[in-house]
Each structure stands twice: as structure tokens, then as C-alpha cells.
């Protein structure tokens, strides 16, 4: 994976700082209150990165002419869908793979045609820190006389298991059983700053979306 350029960081900062992300799949968190012998939290947590499509990057509208924003000038509309993650967390390097489809419609049911659309995949740590980024492209094919076309894409990421694993002392503070009357019995451990910071630092995401131009991103945000 290659480092993120400054413009890309600015766009991603806007996406992560002001927009929610639609999570597809990721770290399995099965938090259950266990009252047997005291109150505690039984947490099941996977080292696999969550897979998500950032808001405003899951679809793209292509215009013809490109400078127009009139509805009559819409040429192709495409969207990312059917995101399916597959994770191999058996080694020191956790491998997350995400397959996805791109479905598109075009304005005119003309002759057979192909449209290539760029997309990005990024690894994000702690919700804001972009670790790496890859660029790819999906080719959508329209059959002769058809207005609907499809394409397929794939994204992947490697994450160090050690970096995605909570320290033992933090896990103990989260899962330690607490009895009624204990001073911290009613305190959610995830509200403790150092615990919350450690959980955030050990959380990774694989984000997939269309590589939009500033104009395309603005169009999606304002639409």
C-alpha cells in the first residue's frame, strides 16, 4: 500500500470527521453482562478490520457533458453494493479481503459499452489515522440495448495482529468482575480515558469507496 497524499488526507478527514460510515462487517463485539459471581463484561473481539463504505463515496454520477450538473446531462450513475468481507486472522499478519459489486445505470440504451470507474481502499486506525491507501478501478459493462451494467472489485489489507490486540491489563479492566457495592461497580470501563484510548488505538477499518473528484464529492454531499 502507498502513503496518502495531502489532498487525499484532506478529503478523508472531511469524510471521517463530519460523516458517519456505513459499516459492512468487522470486529466482532459480543458484549454481554455476566452477573454470575459479580458484574463484568464478557467481550469477544476479533483482530479483523471492520469493512465499511464511507458516507458520500458509495456512489458516483457521471455527466455528459462533464461540466454540466443538469439532470438531463446525467450519463451514468453507479453504486457500490454487495460488499462481502473475508478475513484470515490465523497469523501475525491479519489479512482482510473485501469483494464488492458495482451496479450502474446509463441514460441511453445504446450499443454495448464499458465504463471504467476508479475506487480507493484505505486502512484506518483509531477512526482517523490513515495508515495506507490503494487505488484501483472497476469496469462496468453494458450489453447492447441495456441500460443496466455491472462490475466487480476487490480490496484487501494487512494489519499487524499485535497492533490490533488489546493489552492484557486493558482487557482485564474491561472484563474484570465487579460486585455490587464495589467503588467502580457502576462505572463503564469504556468511559475511562485510558481504556477508551487503547480500544480506539487497537481498532482498524478497511474503507472502500469511489475515488471521487472534489466536484463529484461536493455533488454527493449537496444532493
User: What class, by secondary structure content?
Assistant: alpha+beta
Q: So what's the overall shape?
A: elongated
Mean pLDDT, all residues: 79
Q: How many whole angstroms does the radius of gyration measure?
A: 21 Å
Strand ordering within the main sheet: 1-4-11-8-9-10-7-6-5
First and last CA, distance: 32 Å
The number of helices is 4
Tally of DSSP β-strands = 11
Largest sheet: 9 strands, mixed
Helical fraction? 10-25%
**Order of helical and strand elements:** HEEEEEEEEEEHHEH
List low-pLDDT spans: 1-20, 25-43
Overview of this protein structure:
The protein is an alpha+beta fold and 223 residues long. Helix content is 17%, strand content 43%. It is built from 4 helices and 11 strands, in the order H-E-E-E-E-E-E-E-E-E-E-H-H-E-H. The strands form 2 sheets. It has a 9-stranded mixed β-sheet with strand order 1-4-11-8-9-10-7-6-5. Strands 2-3 form a two-stranded antiparallel ribbon. A hairpin with a 3-residue loop joins strand 8 and strand 9. The radius of gyration is 21 Å and the shape is elongated.
Descriptive labels:
223 residues; alpha+beta; two-stranded antiparallel ribbon; 4 helices; 11 strands; disordered N terminus
Quick rundown:
This protein is of the alpha+beta class. About 15% of the residues lie in helices and about 45% in strands.
Question: What are the SSEs and their pairings?
Answer:
Elements: H1 6-18, E1 21-25, E2 32-34, E3 40-42, E4 50-54, E5 59-63, E6 74-88, E7 93-106, E8 113-125, E9 129-142, E10 148-160, H2 168-175, H3 193-201, E11 204-210, H4 214-222
Parallel strand pairs: 4-11
Antiparallel strand pairs: 1-4, 2-3, 5-6, 6-7, 7-10, 8-9, 8-11, 9-10
Amino acid at each position: 500500500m502507498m502513503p496518502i497524499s495531502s489532498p487525499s488526507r484532506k478529503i478523508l478527514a472531511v469524510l471521517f470527521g463530519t460523516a458517519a460510515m456505513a459499516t459492512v462487517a468487522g470486529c466482532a463485539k459480543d458484549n454481554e453482562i455476566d452477573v454470575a459471581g459479580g458484574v463484568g463484561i464478557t467481550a469477544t473481539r476479533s483482530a479483523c478490520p471492520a469493512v465499511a463504505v464511507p458516507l458520500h463515496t458509495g456512489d458516483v454520477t457521471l455527466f455528459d457533458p462533464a461540466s454540466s450538473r443538469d439532470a438531463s446531462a446525467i450519463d451514468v450513475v453507479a453504486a457500490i453494493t454487495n460488499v462481502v468481507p473475508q478475513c484470515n486472522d490465523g497469523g501475525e499478519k491479519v489479512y482482510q479481503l473485501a469483494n464488492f459489486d458495482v451496479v450502474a445505470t446509463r441514460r441511453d440504451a445504446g450499443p454495448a459499452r464499458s465504463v471504467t470507474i476508479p475506487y480507493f481502499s484505505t486502512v484506518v486506525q483509531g477512526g482517523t489515522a490513515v495508515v495506507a491507501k490503494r487505488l484501483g478501478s472497476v469496469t462496468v459493462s453494458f450489453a447492447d440495448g441495456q441500460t443496466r451494467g455491472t462490475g466487480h472489485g476487490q480490496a484487501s489489507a494487512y494489519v499487524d495482529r499485535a497492533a490490533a490486540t488489546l493489552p492484557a491489563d486493558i482487557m482485564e479492566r474491561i472484563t474484570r468482575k465487579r460486585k455490587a457495592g464495589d467503588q467502580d461497580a457502576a462505572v463503564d470501563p469504556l468511559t475511562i480515558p485510558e481504556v477508551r484510548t487503547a480500544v480506539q488505538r487497537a481498532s482498524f477499518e478497511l474503507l472502500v469507496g469511489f475515488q471521487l473528484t472534489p466536484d463529484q464529492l461536493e455533488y454527493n454531499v449537496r444532493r
